[in-house]
Amino acid sequence: MLKPKLIVDGKRLDGRAFDELRPIKIEADVLKRADGSCYIEMGKNKVLAAVYGPRELHPRHLQDPSKAIIRYRYNMAAFSVEERRRPGPDRRSIEISKVSKEVFEAVIMKELFPRSAIDIFVEVLQADAGSRAAGINAASVALIDAGIPVKGIVTSVAVAKVDGQLVLDPMKEEDYYGEADLPIAFLIRNGKIESITLLQMDGRMTKDEIKRVIELAKKGVMEIYRLQRDAIMRKFMVEEDEG
Amino acid sequence: MRKIVLPGDLVATNSKVAGQGTYVENGKVYAKYLGLLDKDETQVRVIPLKGKYIPTAGDMVVGITKEVTANGWFVNINSPYQAFLPLMENPEYKSNKKPNEVLDIGDAIIARVLNVDPNMKVTLTMKDKMCHPIRLGRIVAINPARVPRVIGKKGSMIKMLKNELGIQIVVGQNGLIWLNGDAKKISIVEEAIYMIEEEAHTEGLTDRVAEFIKRRKGDVEAKTNS
To answer: What confidence score (pLDDT) does residue A239 get?
Structure first.
């Protein structure tokens, strides 16, 4: 198939500016049986995250006597993409699970819960580029909702290069036909970006472009951070008003 | 009303005041979990809104026996960590009895946490006048983070519940609550406890619960009279 023009008259295919996110909707505490949960929509991505724990870990040889272990499962539903996806983990979802797990290893205070496990499940119900970022954003809210001690809030977004232009939060067409795609996650504490907890890339970019990508991502991430906070606050404010 | 804080929110700039629910980095104090901010001159605390029960020595807990061994019982205390009750810590145990004749799988007990070692191995004891096996009554489970509200300031809530209805209540720190007495009255208290759990972080809760109980008591009496 011929590559379509991705940027027309300085606008993207869906009419967004280069540094504009897709519409985001976040809701915390959506599952009764999970200790913490979150539902997020980032554009056409629909992702559900559930957190369990800290809980007893079996079999015992997996236990770590000095800290909790973290398990992260990123999974795409069979109906999440246009062509039916074969259920079960594949090479891609195993990789995403691994890197996402490492994001949270760095922010959860694991030492407080020796010999236990913290389980994070991320289910992608509908995918449209940037689903790992959406999953990380949802998991971060779900962890806080579960009352698990963390250093701050993790927020993630992707930046792509399409038609030579850097664009924030690419959608499927931009991801598919673009020259490069760079998902990135930050630890945000007290409204300030503290560190980068995930950085991947496929395609090529110059050193200068990477610097600009990070600046662009920082801007996008702060918007998402506010929405994540709102989602949790909203949930607990409602509870207070009932009284 | 207390402010809700999220993990990573800056709660103080003096590391000396750091209390429960906070962590210090570079001399600054941050919240470590979702909770309500409780701040005064000497201490800054974050009161958790959610979370699992993590045992500490001295806690009173309600547990259910999960396994019987030759040296004692493994007890589920509604926590990530299973607890162990050694034979010698159960005053009902006599050397001519088998452990499963004293406590069997599924039996509930009220016990005290004797010790928690650095590996989170929890030991229980029943050598305490409050402790005994549970043979009667009802066990109600709530979010462990809401237990302090069920007890109330210096036990005010629990005293009120006991005085109003004259039933036995033991609140386990692990979120399991044992109720014993007249079945109708227990049902009222159970409802009241769920109400406390639901509205844990609101003001004037004790008064509202007292009112609720009076109303429910009236309902029950009206029904029995008619």
So the answer is: 58
Which of B7, B118, B120 comes nearest A150 by C-beta?
Answer: B7
Count of the separate structural domains present in chain B? 3
Across the beta sheet with B44-48, the strand order is B4-5, B35-39, B44-48
pLDDT, one tens digit per residue, over A3-59 is 888 999 989 999 999 999 999 999 999 999 999 999 999 999 999 999 998 999 999
Could you say which of B109, B134, B159 is where a domain stops? B134
How far is it, in rounded angstroms, from Cα B13 to Cα B32? 15
Distance from C-alpha of B27 to C-alpha of B29, rounded to nearest angstrom? 7
Q: What is the DSSP letter of B77?
A: -
Residue-number span of the structural domain to which B21 is assigned: 4-48
By a Cβ cutoff of 8 Å, what residues of chain B touch chain A? 1, 4, 6-10, 23, 25, 30, 32-35, 48-52, 54, 80-82, 118-120, 145, 198-199, 201-203, 205, 208
| pLDDT at site A243 | 41
Can you list the alpha helix ranges (DSSP code H) found in A119-206?
131-145, 172-177
Tell me what the mean pLDDT of segment B179-205 comes to. Answer: 89
Closest C-alpha to B175, from B48, B66, B90: B48
Pair B95, A90: CB distance under 8 Å: no
Q: What is the mean pLDDT of chain A?
A: 95
Q: Which of A53, A56, A144 sits opposite B34 (nearest CB)?
A: A144
Residue of chain A minimizing CA distance to B2 = A240
Judged by average pLDDT, the poorest of B38-52, B54-68, B125-139, B205-219 is: B205-219
- Give the strand pairing for A116-126 and A69-76: parallel
**A188 to chain B: which residues are within 8 Å by CB?**
8
Q: What CA–CA distance (Å, rounded) separates B95 from B52?
A: 36
Report in angstroms the alpha-carbon separations of B70 from B21, B49, B125, B126, B133: 39, 40, 17, 18, 19
Helix (H, G, I), strand (E, B) or coil at A132: helix
Contact A149 B10 (CB under 8 A): no
Read off the pLDDT of residues A170-213 as tens digits, 9 standing for 90 and up: 999 999 999 999 999 999 999 999 999 999 999 999 999 999 99
Q: Assess whether B170 and B206 both reside in one domain.
A: yes
Collapsing DSSP states into helix, strand and coil, what is residue B167? coil
CATH of A16-81+92-241 given 3.30.230.70, 1.10.10.10, 3.40.1190.20, 3.30.420.40: 3.30.230.70
Contacts with B54 from chain A: Cβ below 8 Å = 112-113
Position B204 scores a pLDDT of: 81
